[in-house]
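S.,

As promised, the nicotinamide-adenine-dinucleotide run. Input:
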Amino acid sequence: MTIIVTGGAGFIGSNFIFYMMKAHPDYRLVCLDKLTYAGNLSTLKGVLDMPSFRFVRGDICDRDLVYSLFDEEHPDAVVNFAAESHVDRSILDPSLFLQTNIIGTSVLMDAARRAGNIRFHQISTDEVYGDLPLDRKDLFFTETTPLHTSSPYSSSKAAADLLALSYHRTYGLPVTISRCSNNYGPYHFPEKLIPLMIINALKGKSLPVYGQGINVRDWLYVEDHCRAVDLILHKGRIGEVYNVGGHNEMRNIDIVRIILRQLGKSEDLITFVEDRKGHDLRYAIDPQKISSELGWLPETKFEDGIRKTIKWYLDNESWWQEIIDGEYQDYYERMYSGRLEPR
Ligand SMILES: NC(=O)c1ccc[n+]([C@@H]2O[C@H](COP(=O)([O-])OP(=O)(O)OC[C@H]3O[C@@H](n4cnc5c(N)ncnc54)[C@H](O)[C@@H]3O)[C@@H](O)[C@H]2O)c1
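Predicted complex:
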């Protein structure tokens, strides 16, 4: 089986490539990635020379490139991780999010149709459901929760989901969609909450926490997400959406405290900064459908996952140091300078 994995130089896509190489050593994996600021070829250095792997630098919006790649590779399936994925960046400039997340997905699906309606899996997010109130612990996102987006990022992902479902209904494209909660683990880009806090704590820098840090996210170790996608790709029902998450709700501030404790650093490093615009309060997934239909349940407990993640960042300083020495630094300054006053 040949699978085109888009966005495979990013956080979850790279972990998916590593996971699939182990789980299905006979598969051929072709990674198509534009290498934006979030894509890092060094992440893939361990697999670049493997005969069952090919890396192609390119934009999923580039129709000619995508069509010729499909003509060369004759893929059996596409898993689309490629996206602009950071909410804060979508608030600064939504246009690229619409281009990559919506138009790019449609180009890939057109290529999948042109290649004979091959299997297409769209990686989506629980953010398409908007948020839940903090004081209603009984409420969870199910696959029938109405889409109710808050940011240009989540709106672009919701649009891509609707487009994917329409390609299934209109053209019979064998589509599935997974909507996952927040992932954490190795190779997570330093602008996201968990790596940002680990790295700043290691450097003895202040840890900027939005608002009061009471926003709740449902955290999933990235490998559990990869296993879910593998299952959906092979056994999921066509035309269906599957929520992926593991009843692992944590407040941002509690995660920051756990990281500081594990690194033996003081809580004085925490600095509360002005809240994100439209900041979603709580996300919480009900994974009943994927567990009853496909037998999926998360395997990594948060205590173990965060320990492994912190260890990974300690052992792989050169990976993240290269990133923060580069263009990311300007972005970091723009986002947080002027917000770092204690409140
Ligand atoms: N990170 C999370 O917690 C999370 C949770 C749920 C869903 N998701 C979804 O999972 C997917 C992957 O997320 P991530 O956190 O790994 O993102 P990421 O930002 O780490 O990686 C995105 C990758 O896509 C590539 N890319 C961006 N635009 C491209 C384009 N036009 N053409 C080709 N490649 C392009 C980038 O170079 C990068 O390698 C996204 O679709 C995201 O919406 C992420």
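The chain has a mean pLDDT of 94. The radius of gyration is 19 Å.

- D.
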